[in-house]
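Ticket #4471: structure output looks truncated?

Reporter: J.K.
Steps to reproduce: submitted the chain below (106 residues) through the standard prediction queue, then opened the result file.
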Amino acid sequence: MTDAQDTAPDKQPLPRNIRGKRPQFFSDPAVDHLLATVLELSAELWVSRSRQAALESYLAKTGVLDTAEFETFQIPEEEQEALQAWRSEFMQRLFRTVEGEASTAG
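Returned output as attached by the reporter:
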């Protein structure tokens, strides 16, 4: 590898830490926080949907999944309870930032 290849712009490592203040796009910082949260959740949703579609496609293709039967499948109650517990923990993590800022604002 030549020196020119080592310093090519597309080969430079990205910085691990961002320096300076977080950019503010709206006059109210809460709107920026909300936008960041919505974008983060949107990215997570896209990843989840993409993986779910790939998994369903693979399972249907290999004959493991009957897609018509899958549409009417009901999750067992104990698994629904586990999902509900995960959802509660997720919501607490999601709103931790907002609650923390609200308690220090007064």
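Triage note (M.O.): checked the attachment and the full token line is present. The CA atoms of residues 6 and 12 lie 8 Å apart.
Status: closed, working as intended.
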